[in-house]
Amino acid sequence: MRRLIEISRFAVVLPAISSLIGGIVLMILGSIDIFKATVEIVLTQAPLKETIVSILTSIDAILLGTVLLVIGYGLYELFVDSRLEIPEWLEINTLDDLKAKLTGVIVAIIAVVFVGFLVEIKSASDVLYYGVGAGAVVLSLGAFSFATRKK
Predict the structure, then answer these.
(1) 65 FRET partner, CA 20 to 30 A, in 43, 73, 99, 109?
(2) Is the whole model's pTM more than 0.85, yes or no?
(3) Taking Cα atoms as reference points, which of 2, 144, 5 lies closest to residue 79?
(4) Is 79 in contact with 19 (CB distance < 8 Å)?
(5) Domain count, the chain
């Protein structure tokens, strides 16, 4: 029974690989969209506002891809093999490490999404509502990270 439980940790391999594949796909698609937006603005002189929104949306996809990569690396490193050759800043030794890295990337995504809304929004009150909402989420993530960190 003990051996079965020990081996069960390898069940995380499939979600880890799926996260890595999803992250790579999102990064490729985001990069292609940025390239398309660049070509479009050069060839057709597309409006700057539309180009900004398009590029910010693409960056959002790339950042989400980064989240999936971090999840994939983290799960694999935590459950399967801690000897991965990855940059030191990406090493994950505990679930708290994974949580901290994910929180940082999520905050970056929120910032990019908020800037995208800033470009599209026409009224000051909408900017205020979205800003307060984004700020509340970021503060909540910070409070959660602070309250659950290990000393």
Answers:
(1) 43
(2) no
(3) 5
(4) no
(5) 1
What's the one-letter identity of residue 7? I
In DSSP notation, 26-49 reads: HHHHHHHHHHHHHHHHHHT---HH
Tens of pLDDT, residues 104-119: 888 888 888 888 888 7
Q: Which of 34, 66, 67 is nearest to 53 (CA)?
A: 34
Angstrom distance (rounded) from CA 133 to CA 64? 20
Segments forming the whole domain that contains residue 91? 2-148
CA distances from 5 to 8, 10, 70, 74, 75 (A): 5, 10, 25, 20, 17
Identity of the residue numbered 94 = T
Q: What is the DSSP letter of 94?
A: S
Mean pLDDT across the chain, nearest whole number? Answer: 87
The radius of gyration computed from the CA coordinates of the chain, to the nearest angstrom, equals 19
One-letter identity of residue 106: I
CA distance readout (Å), 38 to 49, 54, 106, 113: 13, 10, 26, 20
**Cβ atoms of 75 and 12 closer than 8 Å:** yes
For residues 142 and 114, what is the distance between their CA atoms, to the nearest angstrom?
18
